[in-house]
Amino acid sequence: MSQTTYQIRLKHSEGALVRLLGLARRRRFDVTHFVAHPAPDGDFLDVQMTVESERSETVLARQIENLLDVTYVSIASDSPAAYSQVGSAGT
Amino acid sequence: MNGAQFLVKALEKEGVDIIFGYPGGAIMPVYDALLDSTIRHVLVRHEQAAALAADGYARATGKVGVCMATSGPGATNLVTGIANSFMDSIPVVAITGQVATHLLGTDAFQEVDIFGITLPVVKHSFLAAQGDDLGAIVHEAFQIARSGRPGPVLIDLPKDIANTVGDFRFADSLGSNDLGDPPLEAIAHALEMMRESRRPVIYAGGGIGMAEAVAEFRAFVAGTRIPVVSTLKALGALPTDHELFMGMMGMHGNKAANIAVQSCDLLICTGARFDDRATGKLSGFAPHARVIHIDADASEIGKLRQAEAGVTGDMRRALKQLTIPLDDIREWRDECAANKVSHAWTYPPDSREVSATWFLSQLSAQANGNTIIASDVGQHQMWVAQHCSFATPRNHLSSGGLGTMGFGLPAAIGAQMGRPDATVINVTGDGSIMMNLQELATLKRYDLPIKILLFDNHMLGMVRQWQELFHNRRYSEVDLSDNPDFAAVARAMGIPAIRVEESSEVQSAIDRMLSEPGSLLVHVIIHSEANVWPIVGPGKSNSEMMEERRR
């Protein structure tokens, strides 16, 4: 069981947060920490989400990227200072 | 112009020519607007059939299917069909009426949170809570449904927005959705792996058809001359009679196909997702193989099986770049060809009893190339996959991921509406047909020339087979000996029908199916203990196929 923290930016649109949380649960990632706050420009939310799972953190990152509201995902597996960008989602 | 009228105009602008649906309270403004539209509405008799017909239409035509229902139960009845499209990555836009925005969240009459209910089974969804957004929502919904890895998109439309009169505006075009070039490094690595391989196999998936990459795939096979195995959804990507086609792999796959995968040293997975029905026990799947995984959806790469080379981006470009001659695999090809001959399908010796597999093989051999088979789910679905030939994936409609009993008839309706020149055959069973039997009325209403081939073993056959093989013959709730007389039911609903009980009647039934201009239900009685062979048992590796047991 490993713990992973994701930094995510997503559009503040209908159901965006529920979609993200639902994806993590459905893919069998246990959400242990979740903080969301408005990004500086107001149309987006910045989310820090920590999950526990035996499954691949990279695969979940790619699945998060596939959410249409998500514009940015990065992972920090052990050290919160060592974020690495997975990529940014298109439409 | 009100919101509903604008919605219909926006659908027309997206090229929608047909909607499968069922009216009701909250969606009434849209039905009113449809009266003035060029869009044809097909009234089904249950909303689930609307969603499945839209799915079948999309599979058969490659266009986005559209279904529509009212709020509450109308919307929830769509859910199985939407999930079906999601699991098989089919482009569908589902439009639901919703209670007025001021009533949202108040438990109003026929209010249900369809946006929330469908979140796990849509690619994306919209609640059109403001009329100003409607143009952008419709355009984006279609773009999302068809782009990248396709999938269903929901638009939930509150009634007050539908009734609001305003100055609506169409959205600017979002342009094409180019998936981009495959990464050069991944292509180079994949080419190196291909050159090093002596026993390569191509594992073809449904993504080939969805990426419109059939021509490039066939050129890839012709250029590399690598043997090909197929998933259920990829049948037709390579013509079934192609010399390098080994057959369907997996639980009910051809033994030669499974042997090829289990003994290959390189697996080139092309638009497939290592589904458990295809792989069997994952840890025992292709145990000697390095893997190249080509897929438009990067999240599939490494999800279940690690790939040494993950090739994302435009599949057509990837396949072109990977098409190289391989000089050192002749021995392997010969071995695969010999296995294919050794494990070719055989048919029961002549007997009075009808063999479903022989019936299907004969029907398929005599049907023309523009024949679509929309299969239901169960034993007959696997028999179709095993014994029918397909010239293109668009001619084989099958509920692969969700395994939705009741899929076949509505999917056939959607396919026939989308391709009126095609011969459309729904192959079904006595369990599946009852799940959407009411759609015989839709067949009659629109005078559709669909042929229904119903194999009746008076059983839930696949479940019975599993209980026989894996539950010590403890048969639980699989007896359907009280089935209605399906031919009589069909006739009562205005569909001509015949009954076939003996093998001597098969050819005349095929003749009628392929020559009569209108609809026809062929009710075929088969043995109640007919099984699908071979089979890989639950939790077993594809190396451990069980073969036919003579009773």
CATH H level, superfamily name of chain A:
ACT domain
Number of domains of chain A: 1
Cα separation of the termini of chain A: 32 Å
Q: What is the beta-strand fraction of chain A?
A: 35-45%
Radius of gyration of chain A: 12 Å
Low-confidence stretches of chain B: none
Count of extended strands of chain A: 5
Oligomeric status of the shown chains? Answer: heterodimer
Written account of the structure:
The complex is a heterodimer of chains A (91) and B (551). With 91 residues, chain A is α+β, with helices and mostly antiparallel strands. Chain A has one domain (2-87): ACT domain (Alpha-Beta Plaits), CATH 3.30.70. In chain A, 23% of the residues lie in helices and 44% in strands. Chain A has 2 helices and 5 strands. Chain A has helices at 16-26, 57-66, and strands at 2-11, 30-38, 44-53, 70-76, 84-87. Chain A has a 5-stranded antiparallel β-sheet with strand order 2-3-1-4-5, covered by helices on one side. In chain B, the strands form 4 sheets. Chain B has a 6-stranded parallel β-sheet with strand order 2-1-3-4-6-5, with helices on both faces. Chain B is built from 21 helices and 20 strands. The N and C termini of chain B lie far apart (69 Å). In chain B, α1 (3-13) crosses α2, α1 runs parallel beside α6 and α15 (356-366) crosses α16 (379-387). Chain B has 3 domains: 3-163, Thiamin diphosphate (ThDP)-binding fold, Pyr/PP domains (Rossmann fold), CATH 3.40.50; 184-342, TPP-binding domain (Rossmann fold), CATH 3.40.50.1220; 356-546, Rossmann fold (3-Layer(aba) Sandwich), CATH 3.40.50.970. Chain B has 551 residues and is an alpha/beta fold. In chain B, α4 (73-87) links the parallel β3 (65-69) and β4 (92-98). The chains are: A alpha+beta (91), B alpha/beta (551). The interface between A and B is medium-sized, with 16 and 23 residues.
